[in-house]
Amino acid sequence: MSPICPSDLLTLHQLLIACGDYASQQSQRSFQVFEKGVDDYVTTVDQLLDQKLLAGMRALFPEDGIITEENRATAEQFQDLAGQVPNRPLWFVDPIDGTDDFIQGRDNYAVMVGRVVRGEPQAGWIYAPVGRHLVWGGPGWGLFEQTGDGQSAPLLPKEPTFDPDQDWSMVIGDKDERRFGEAIARQFPHVHFLALGSFGLKVLAVITGQAGIYIYLNGRVKLWDTTGPLALARAAGLVCCDLAGQPIRFTEPDVVSHTLIHRQPIVVGWPSYVEALRSPLNDIATAIGLPR
Length: 292
Known about the structure:
Number of strands: 14
Distance between the termini: 40 Å
CATH topology of the largest domain: Fructose-1,6-Bisphosphatase, Chain A, domain 1
Order of helices and strands: HEEHEEHEEEEEEHEHEHEEH
CATH class of the largest domain: Alpha Beta
CATH superfamily of the largest domain: Fructose-1,6-Bisphosphatase, subunit A, domain 1
Radius of gyration: 18 Å
Strand order of the largest sheet: 3-4-5-6-7-8-9
CATH architecture of the largest domain: 2-Layer Sandwich
Shape: globular
């Protein structure tokens, strides 16, 4: 069952598509790039879309908290005055997930929104403008997709067969592959690494069976990166846990309150993959050391 009414759902979809299509148009034009931190960039397109999404979603959901990546003042809504997660829904908004890919003119970026209620991801939306592909849903609701101006339809998750003696695919980011890839490949010689820019599109690759598992060990991912994709992953029946097997949590102390960074390394995968791979991956990460 949808957590929001049909008219609000339609308006939200129109907002996400308009913002994503604008990003796609601007990717062919000149824009400015700024460095927010080490290997962390923002463009003038991110900033403009952040403002549009914040204004649009505040109009749609005036009683909810809206937290966006490029307006850090909105992060104050993550806690109430007592330092607790508020009871009202919190929306986490990423105007361009996969900014590096956007800057380089590649395809793997997306506009993302996720809804958290009482510390649990309830719903998520990912719009990939290059393919004009919108995916949405959540636990107890289901998964849906729409491409271009077509009709919406259920998105059917696809679980790839796991056989360690046959070729299989793992989604992993560039930084994690550089740090851990050689050790993983030594232990699992049939693994193939799949790299995509956006966190959300990486999760979708697992949902749709392009890979069986996604690991993120880099220690920098934030709630606007994860909320929507992990809501979709849970709706698909994937396991979302850390290397110790603990569920990914969206509250302190597992989220740093002033940065909204996850403290937990993140594993998203089909149960058969997670059962077979989580413990060996934990051993590899322990031996090499997780980034701090």
